[in-house]
Structures are given as C-alpha cells and as structure tokens.
Amino acid sequence: MTVPGRIEAAHLLLSLDPPDWFLRHARAVAEVAAWLAQRTRANGVEVDGPLVEAAALLHDIDKIVPAGDPARTLPHGEGSASWLSARGHGELREAVAGHPVTRLIDGGRAEGMLAAPRPEARIVAYADKRAGQRLESMDERFASWQRRYPGGWDEHEAHAVRERAERLEAAVCRDASIHPLQVRRLRWTGPALAAARTTPVGAR
Description:
The chain has helices at residues 6-14, 20-42, 49-58, 78-85, 93-97, 107-115, 120-130, 138-148, 155-176, 189-198. It has 204 residues and is mainly α.
C-alpha cells in the first residue's frame, strides 16, 4: 500500500472524468486540508501531509465511479475508501471513510475520530465541513446542507451533529493553533491537475 503523491492523486481523480462542480469541491477540500496540515505541523503536531492531501482530494470519488462499480453499493465515504484500497491506497481508508457529515450522527464513530491520537482523519473531515465550492464557514456549509436535504435529520440528530462538528472544529484548530476565521487554502491542486493531464500514468 502507498500514499499517492499530488500528481498521482490527481491522476486518480481525473481517471473518473469528474464534472466541474465535483472538481471545484474536491479542490477546495484538498486545499483547505493541506493548509490545515501545514499549520498543524508548524505547531509541533505530527501529521502526514501527503496522506491528508490525497485523502481530501479523493474523499468523494464514490459519487462518480461508474455505474456497476462495487463502491456504489457501500455507504458514502466507505465506497471511496474501498475504491482506493482496491488500487493499493489503503492508507487513505480511515481519513476518507470518516469524512461524511452523517458520520457525526453515530456517536461512537464520532467520538473515536475526535479522540484518535493522529489528526489526519479530523483534518479531512473538518476541511469538508468548511468547503463547498469554495471556503465557507461551518454555518454556511450547514445551511447549504439543510437547503439541499430538508428534513434530513430530526431535531435530536441535528443538534448532535452540530455539537460534534463544533468539537471537531475546536480540535483541529487547537492542533493548528488558529481561530476558525484564519483558515485558508494552500493552492496546490491546480499545478497537480495540470501536471497529471500531461504526465503519463506511473511517470515520476
């Protein structure tokens, strides 16, 4: 198993011919996650930056795998993890599988991620809570989900999800020694995607 580098991760994404809206979201999440990983490392917390970047760029690919692919039959996040594992990138499994906001409904899984000794899965999950088509606040992101999926959670679930999301934000920002308003994007995906479009698969 290997963690794909930036160009290899871009190759994997482009192999699925992502639509523009999907690519904008994947890039936003990947760049927010990369910035957070960089700040976390600068704060003295050990973090695998390449794993964070690859997992964030590829976190949603189960939404665009071809019809009939086994990943389509799995819950969101787990499908992406399975697809990547089948291609030799099992190291990404935890960070990819743990990103969906629906994981925050499951108290056991949410508490496990919040208490995990390593920050990678938290960073990817939080980056997804801060990036739609662009960098947003969590308030904006949750409002977007509520518009698109009205009635998706009952009142108890909605309260639990938001409370855990706020704790996730606090944990990630504490590791990076930042305030949520300071979160930015590290602009790496444009060059990686451009290189992937002109570099043969497997070339170094």
